[in-house]
Amino acid sequence: MHNPLRRAALRTLAAGAFAGALPFAAQAEAYPSKPVRWIVPYPVGGGSDFLARQAAPRMAKLLGTTIAVENRPGAAGIIGTELASRAAPDGYTLVFGDNGAMVFNPAMYRKLPYSPTNFEPVGFMANFPLILVADPASGIQSARDLIAKARANPGKFSYASPGAGSPHHLGMELFKERAGLYIVHVPYRGTAMAIQDVIAGTLPMMIVDTAGGLAQIRAGKVKALAVLSKSRIPQLPDVPTIAEAGVRNAEVSAWLGLYVPKGTPADVVARLNREMRAALSEPQAKAALETFGLQVSPSSPDELAAFVRRETAVWHKLIRERQLQLD
Fold first, then answer.
1. pLDDT at 231 over 50
2. 70 has which bridge partners?
3. What Å distances lie between residue 245 and 141, 150, 172, 203, CA to CA?
4. Residue 298's beta-bridge partner residues?
5. pLDDT tens digits for 261-302?
6. Which CDD domains match (predicted)?
7. pLDDT per residue over 168-205, tens digit each?
8. 205-209 vs 119-134, strand pairing mode
């Protein structure tokens, strides 16, 4: 026999459970419902910082929230990247991932406090072309001239880099490997210090990115020998590619992708990717970024993941063969 009071009580409980679920459903649909932070694992004023500060307010407007750019530099990007890896996977923490964080560091550090698998890709954003430059007073006239001089004097030339494990460092190691050169590495703490010593003649050469080197090249303070891109770049149309200088398969750039912690809901990742693409497509943003030296090329999450797999295969092999591990 059915008890009418029991049936009424069950209906009341069911209605209460449904009503109680509504705020959670609404919360899931309402992303974002609070401010978002964007961790940049590098200092204020650099290329990654500039990109974040151009993209963040535009993405925030499209998302209907605010995005605070938070610089957490140090230890080749490890400090900021580790911080992001421990954040909740809810879409409220974004982080830049680049060659260093997602490709180089896992091969160079045995005790890395994070793994690239701790993150979900949102999409590729942009890259900085890299340029081989020399002190004009060094007597090095071209990339071919540098190669000839370095081969004739193994170990007697040295080069500066913004830091061990940077794309500039690894790019030079790739160039050395492809050209068969022995040139000594002298790491600095950032591009500004490194390029100043090349300008002063303390060291004869280095690789710079467009953000850190274009102004010095245009002022004649350093001489551009070659770009490490597959084609010449519009900012320096008269500078040959490294392949034109006779060195094949030595192309490299400093690239930046957007990531979120692993486990972030797929619909949130898709929303962030959509608004990232829209923000980077705005004419004013694109013009500002290209003037700064970036090449803007937003992608899907899957395209970024596939790109990183290809990069990993190339660079991990080079790091092992040249024994570039740092611990």
1. yes
2. 39
3. 12, 15, 15, 22
4. none
5. 999 999 999 999 999 999 999 999 999 998 888 999 999 999
6. PBP2_Bug_TTT
7. 999 999 999 999 999 999 998 788 899 999 999 999 99
8. antiparallel
Contact 75, 252 (CB under 8 A): no
Whole-angstrom distance, CA of residue 105 vs CA of residue 165: 7
Torsion of CA 292, 295, 300, 301, to 10 degrees: -70
| Positions of E strands within 164-301 | 184-187, 205-209, 223-227, 253-261, 295-296
Length of the chain: 327
Does an H or E element contain 92, and which? none
Dihedral in degrees, nearest 10, Cα atoms 76, 82, 83, 84: 100
Q: d(Cα 21, Cα 235) in Å, to the nearest integer?
A: 56
Mean pLDDT, range 8-32, rounded to an integer: 52
Domain annotation for the chain: domains and CATH numbers: 34-127+254-321 (3.40.190.150), 129-227 (3.40.190.10)
pLDDT tens digits for range 45-80 = 788 899 999 999 999 999 999 999 999 988 888 999
